[in-house]
Amino acid sequence: MKALVAIKHAVDYNVKPNIDPATGQVDIAQVKKAVNPFDEISLEEAVRLKEQGKVNEIIAVSIGGDDAKDSLRHAYAMGADRALLIATSASPQPLAVATLLKAIVEREQPQLIFLGKQAVGEDYGQTGQILSALLGVGIGTFASGLQLEAGHVDVIREIEKGTQTIRLTLPAVITTDLRLNEPRFIKLPNLMMAKKKIIEIISAHELGVDLAPRFTVLTASEPANKPGAVQVSNVQELVEKLRRAEVLI
């Protein structure tokens, strides 16, 4: 069975980018980038399925510029068998990303298509759902557990009052949540070996996908400052503070 894992070269989650006051947009031109953490969880799950003998090939796919190769080499070091870069200088929005991935899925015919539930930074959380609709296959969103069997996969999802388990006929799209697993630590020799592996490059233009944006971000703003938390020693002190703040009369 073949698994395809989408790998976004996203802003490193340890970095706090600033908003450019001149444009009103988040400035990510010079910030450090890395594998989107939710995509890393997807890859870890695919590797674990391969170690269990349920998957025999893992293809990592990224979309972007030359720097996205860093995330694909990370995928190689974790255990991907092949890496493919859809090269573009544009920043495609979710519909274009899903359409590009659809072209690769139709070429590779994987039974499992993994994506993170969202990409840190934009947090749109749309691509997996759009890809599922374009392919006409089922989707399990926000997966916190899964069980792969012949012809189907059971996906455990967290819902408001507990968990829900759904059964998807393969092929299927799965978007992964934080609780699914903890990605493995990558050893230095694996990173060194990954540098020698081949990354196949396909131009986004070759796939004939319209990358034109479908929406415009009007502006971005920092969250409002909140007053600092205060620890009180007893209920009487809490009541007194609330009265002074005119929350209690």
Task: Give structural notes.
The model has no long low-confidence stretch (mean pLDDT 92). The termini are far apart. By secondary structure, the chain is of the alpha/beta class. The longest helix has 15 residues, at 37-51. Helices cover 27% and strands 30% of the residues.
Q: How confident is the prediction overall: mean pLDDT?
A: 92
Number of strands: 13
Class by alpha and beta content = alpha/beta
Task: Write down the Rg.
Answer: 21 Å
Question: How is the quaternary structure best described?
Answer: single chain
| Strand and helix order | EEEEEHEHEHEHEEEEHEH
Strand content of the residues, in percent?
25-35%
What's the helical proportion of residues?
25-40%
Largest sheet: 9 strands, mixed
Q: Categorize the overall geometry.
A: globular
**For the largest beta sheet, what order do the strands appear in spatially?**
11-10-9-12-8-1-6-7-13
Tally of individual helices: 6
Unreliable segments (pLDDT under 50, ≥5 consecutive)?
A: none
Task: For the record, give the distance between the C-alpha atoms at the N and C termini, rounded to a whole number.
Answer: 66 Å
Write the layout of secondary structure elements.
Elements: E1 2-6, E2 9-11, E3 18-20, E4 25-27, E5 33-35, H1 37-51, E6 57-64, H2 69-78, E7 82-87, H3 94-108, E8 112-116, H4 127-135, E9 138-149, E10 152-159, E11 162-169, E12 172-176, H5 188-194, E13 199-203, H6 235-244
Parallel strand pairs: 1-6, 1-8, 6-7, 7-13, 8-12, 9-12
Antiparallel strand pairs: 2-5, 3-4, 9-10, 10-11
Helix pairs in contact: 2-5, 3-4
